[in-house]
Amino acid sequence: MKAFADLYGRLDATTSSNAKLQAMQDYFRDASAEDAAWAVYFLAGGRPRQLVPTRLLREQAMTAGHLPEWLFEESYQAVGDLAETIALLLPESHHSSEEGLATWVEDYLLPLRGLPPEELAARLPALWSRLDRQSLMVCIKLITGAFRVGVSKLLVTRALASLAGLDPKRVAQRLVGYTDLSHRPSAAGYRRLVAEESDREHAERGGQPYPFFLAHALQAPHEQFEALLGPVENWLVEWKWDGIRAQLVKRDGALWIWSRGEELVTDRFPELHALAEQLPDGTVIDGELVVWKDDRVQPFALLQQRIGRKTLSRKLLEDVPVRMLAYDLLEQAGEDWRSQPQHARRSALEALLARSPSPLLQLSPTLTGRDWQDLAAQREASRSLGVEGMMLKARDALYGVGRTKDMGVWWKWKIDPFSVDAVLIYAQRGHGRRASLYTDFTFAVWDAEPGASERTLVPFAKAYSGLTDEEMRQVDAVIRKTTVEKFGPVRSVTPTLVFELGFEGIALSKRHKSGVAVRFPRMLRWRHDKTVEDADTLATLQDLLQ
Amino acid sequence: MDLVIARPEGLYCPPGDFYIDPWRPVERSVITHGHGDHARWGNARYLAAAPGEGILRSRLGQDIDLQTLPYGATLDHHGVKLSFHPAGHVLGSAQVRLEYRGEVWVASGDYKVEADGTCAPFEPVRCHTFITESTFGLPIYRWRPQAEIFAGIDDWWRQNQAEGRASVLFAYSFGKAQRILHGIDDRIGPILVHGAVEPLNRVYREGGIRIPETHYAGDFKKSDPLLRQALVLAPPSAAGSTWMRRFGEYSDGFASGWMMLRGTRRRRGVDRGFVLSDHADWPGLLWAIEQTGAERVMVTHGSVNVLVRYLREQGLDAQGFTTEYGDEDDSDDLPGADQPGADLPGANQPGADPEPREEGP
To answer: What stretch or stretches form a coiled coil here (chain B) (predicted)?
Structure first.
């Protein structure tokens, strides 16, 4: 456990990708295959179901320190991380277990699941007494399923690939499904990840998708596109759909649908199962799942309603029909097409859909423009069409892995977000590196125009991102000085701060006091130049509803 | 009768007509220690513990009207018997004991219960009412023995040396820096200090405290190979300044009680956080309060509400005192304390600190 906790410490202490790569390589080089298998699992985002109820862990910490519950809560508020709080409150041990991660997970931790509380209460202290504080915190994070450390799956892939002398794309392919709940890491599994390439590999892939190729945001003004991107003819342009990115895999007579998080979502979209009949074996299509009705895409909020449901009634399926908008072909006739240029993949996709037409699977249309200026003008229609802007894909680019740029680039050229000037009225302390600073805010707008005889601030959105560290510190200081009341972890403040708040979408909502719900709200800038009286009103928000 | 009350100018003793660590200029001030949030400019007269004289004069000016008393000696003023007792916080730090008509109050200023060799160790004083700080007043704060922390700093320094990098350690220049210098293994390599640290080293040496040989970092050229071997002590305000450029590639660390939390450590953005504080941790606060035998406890700067509530649940008569302590760049000040102004370094008023903050490049 010590070695893995040290790795966690090294990864946590740095923001440099190279330092993180080095730390992972050092760990994997020395670790047994059993330990490495579990380390890959956790680092790549795998989380076993919670092994011990959080409630019980909190009680142990309180009992050990003879602490009342309110004092535990105060401590948690200051620390901003539950596992860390518990680790700081449990008695400190002078031992540190040298036993490997696999032994800990398989022999000590997994067997805890489902044990009665008395049994757990008896067993856990014996485990804690073998862990130094850092190991203890990591161990509790593994137990609660809250283990997270700042490495991407891509970075784990690169660490393993360079250690094993493999192409990172190959490792990424092998890692697909590795962090599934159904998958149990093992020494043999780890050896397969880092084994030399074999000829059988491609044939044995079952329903696995390919690692998704992800787009980068394009922020420059379009006047610079010619210089940045070259002539418009070199690019394949589409709308940027506001749905769920997915791959359709048809192999061996069966259909699989995978979401971008490499989660298998086939069951959630029964209307698409008919495609199993339509598509030839050995086909993988990349595209977007959207709600499609009246010949147009519907707001994401509708799709979200469907995702939230456990059972899908016939009525819901009729009212909220899902379609796949196809934009890339990754496999054809069982052959990996990712090293074909974009334009060739697109032609093959068009030909495939022409051969197997289905209303369930529609081609995401390409857009043409005389020049970037022309496309920029077309992009103005985004909002009325219900799309987020445009996607730009280099015609000659290959299909990469994750956010890599070496194989070519996909750009998302999004429209500017909606924005309003809103007033900060409540604040709550943040988590992680924002712990103990007030960084999570509730914003309000006025319910009437200036000059109205009486008007109040109505909360409508929560946001916590968009400020620099320095701004966070300044806002934190203002909040402490202007606090009116405290309700548990939340403070109300005398309204003094105005921020320009950006968001991607807005919809009517019965659950919100303001009557509207906004999507992805974040702070665009701090309006030092505006007073609270200058902030926007509910009417401004309602106008945005169209 | 209350021997100490909170007034806009500071903590005030009505029968004695003097203030303890006032934050606005007053006629008579009693000073617990030399940190800038406790010892401020502009008072007509100062009274402090004798071992703190050098510090106070070096920070507030050689010509201040300062009277001193040795630890334990008593002075009678308007019928109030006043004496100083070691607080173990920094050189010259003292608790102030006040006795009037059989009633005893102790104002502790800032204190630490682990003895460190750079100042007289904390001495519990029996009293009826105890005024305590609460900087680290949460049970998550439990310090490891300082020997372990110094060993950690030594190991870090050695490793950096082996890799040919300077080790830059940020620490408050008065108290923390000297405690580190006293505690580390000075045989490892040369020790360089920032201009803000050296004047205080001198005062400590004059006070008979063992501080190893230090060099002024500004005397070395960037190309000097000695820099890659050195431990460099600098105040937190030097981080990110042009002053740091001379060290080329270096590893940095920060020594503070706040480094206990991962979040604060990451926010600092240093390579290493060393959990070392000049304040009492949670068990230390509770132990000190118990040792005084006080039935009444007044809580100042830090986690005031938490400590007050906890002590009340233990059956003590506890209440909070609003003060303006804890917002000084040079003390273990607190991110996230429940008190206005008790926030982050840099929130203090400029000019209150006569130290050189930074030098030119």
So the answer is: none
- Structural domain includes residue A534: yes
Residues 6+ apart with CB under 8 A from B344: A473, A476, A477, B333, B335
- Of A354, A379, A414, the position where a domain reaches its end is A414
Where does A12-122 show beta strands of DSSP type E? none
- Contact residues for A168 (Cβ-Cβ < 8 A; gap 6+): A154, A157, A158, A161, A401
Say if residues B132 and B108 touch (Cβ distance below 8 Å).
yes
- Tell whether B239 is within 8 A of chain A (Cβ): no
ipTM score for this prediction: 0.87
Please answer yes or no on whether B139 and A84 come within 8 Å at the CB atom.
no
- Identify which of A68, A78, A88 has the shortest CB distance to residue B336: A78
**CATH number assigned to the domain comprising residue A385:** 3.30.470.30
Q: Which long-range contacts (CB under 8 A, 24 or more apart) does B216-222 make?
A: B216/B192, B217/B192, B217/B193, B217/B246, B218/B359, B220/B192, B220/B246, B221/B246, B222/B246, B222/B247, B222/B248
CB pairs A-B closer than 8 Å: 80
Q: How close A4 comes to chain B (CA, Å)? A: 17
**A251 and A377 inside one domain:** yes
CA distances from A528 to A456, A468, A540 (A): 21, 15, 21
Q: Looking at the structure, do residues A346 and A464 belong to the same domain, yes or no?
A: no
Using a CB-CB cut-off of 8 Å, the residues of chain A touching B343 are 476-477, 480
A440 and A363 housed in the same domain: no
Q: Specify whether A408 is located in the same domain as A424.
A: no
Nearest CB to B263 within list A65, A433, A469: A433
**Cβ contact, residue pair A88, B140, below 8 Å:** yes
Nearest neighbour of B263 by CB, restricted to A13, A434, A476: A434
Partner residue facing A477 (CB), from B139, B266, B347? B347
Domain count within chain A: 2
- Tell me: do A397 and A483 sit in the same domain: no
Task: With H, G, I as helix, E, B as strand and everything else as coil, classify residue B253.
Answer: strand
The answer to whether B341 faces chain A, any CB pair under 8 Å, is yes
Same domain membership, residue A461 and residue A369? no
A229 and A373 in a common domain:
yes
CA-nearest residue to B327 within chain A is A477
Name the domain boundary from A414, A446, A469: A414
CATH 3.40.50.10710 fits B146-274, yes or no: yes
B100 Cβ contact list (under 8 Å, min separation 6): B1, B3, B15, B16, B79, B80, B81
- Shared domain for A410 and A428, answered yes or no, is no
* Tens of each residue's pLDDT in chain A, 546 residues: 999 999 999 998 877 889 999 999 999 999 999 999 999 999 998 888 889 999 999 998 898 888 999 999 999 988 989 999 999 999 888 888 899 999 999 999 999 999 999 999 889 999 999 999 999 999 999 999 889 888 888 899 999 999 999 988 788 888 887 887 778 899 999 999 999 988 777 766 778 889 899 999 888 899 999 999 999 999 999 999 989 999 999 998 899 999 887 777 888 899 999 999 999 999 999 999 999 998 899 988 888 878 877 788 888 888 899 999 999 999 999 999 999 999 999 999 999 999 988 999 999 999 999 999 999 999 999 988 989 999 999 999 999 888 877 777 899 999 888 899 999 999 998 876 677 789 899 999 999 988 888 899 999 999 988 898 889 989 999 998 888 888 777 899 999 999 999 998 888 888 888 889 898 899 999 998 889 999 999 988 988 886
Q: What are phi and psi of B360, to 5 degrees?
A: -65, 170
Q: Where are the domains of chain B?
A: 5-140+278-329, 146-274
Q: Which residues contact A380 (CB under 8 A, 6 or more apart)?
A: none
Q: For residue B147, which residues of chain A lie inside 8 Å, CB to CB? A: none
CATH of domain B5-140+278-329: 3.60.15.10
